[in-house]
Amino acid sequence: MALRLTEIFFSLQGEATRVGLPTVFVRLAGCPLRCRWCDTAYSFSGGELFDIAAVLAEVGRYPTRHVCVTGGEPLAQKDCLPLLTALCDAGYDVSLETSGALDITAVDARVARIMDLKAPDSGECERNRWANLAALNARDEIKIVIASRADYDWARQTIAEHCLAAICPVLLSAAQGLLEPVALAEWILADGLDVRFQLQLHKVLWGNIKGK
Questions:
Q1: pLDDT recorded at residue 211
Q2: Under a CB-based contact definition with an 8 Å cutoff, are residues 135 and 104 in contact?
Q3: CA gap 14, 22 in Å, rounded
Q4: What's the DSSP call for residue 133?
């Protein structure tokens, strides 16, 4: 089994309900989507080949039990699934950041799935795999990046139509450089929306430095 990796690095988790936790990030290369606001386009190609044992050895160098497998789109690589299982077997608290465009049903049940729903301004809204919603549970999370008022209105309608807040936590964040976070915060408060507003902590601390 071989995985193409962009990077493995140690930082603070910047998003979702694990925000602030020291975490090892395993960033797999490749993604079939091209979201307009993507901040990890450097992971679309290239990377180095690692087998699962080598990934585990590198992850084990860092003083934490929290591991996040991300991308790109990690599920685009078939060996992502056995990697997730191996990390869980090794005793790590594992989360997966995925676009929501690929099937999540085969992901190890011990993994917390942080799944995107792509709003219209992403340019990839039609790639949302709505069948994934039925596979989510209370340990998972849904993330929607908002780039405009139209995106917010779409998110609000989607949350209501699919009763998303009853499935798992729903996270809304502003697309950097496209929407002021305070605007999103005010919309959420005005509507009393049952979501968690989030800023990307790593960008607050370090900006857009790769590997942070």
A1: 66
A2: yes
A3: 10
A4: G
Phi, psi of 205 (to 5 degrees): -80, -45
> In this structure, which amino acid lies at residue 25?
F
CA separation for the pair 133, 104 (Å, rounded): 9
135-170 tens-digit pLDDT: 999 999 999 999 999 999 999 999 999 999 999 999
Closest C-alpha to 121, from 161, 179, 188: 179
Query: And the tokens for 70?
Result: 């991300």
Residue 121 — very low, low, confident or very high, per pLDDT cuts 50/70/90? very high
CA–CA dist 103, 107 (Å, integer): 9
Question: Residue with structure tokens 């990390």?
Answer: 87
For tokens 């959420």, the residue is: 188
Given a contact cutoff of 8 angstroms between Cβ atoms, the answer to whether 113 and 140 are in contact is yes
125 phi-psi bin (left φ>0, alpha ψ -120 to 50, beta other): alpha
Residues 59-90 have pLDDT tens digits of 999 999 999 999 999 999 999 999 999 999 99
Q: Which two tokens stand for residue 123?
A: 């340019």
CA–CA dist 191, 212 (Å, integer) = 33
Residue with tokens 């990934």: 55
Q: Which of 87, 3, 10, 103 shows the shortest CA–CA distance to 95?
A: 87
Percent of the chain surpassing pLDDT 70:
98
What domains are there in the chain, each with its CATH number?
A: 3-206 (3.20.20.70)
Q: On the CB side of 35, how many CA atoms lie within 13 Å of its CA?
A: 29
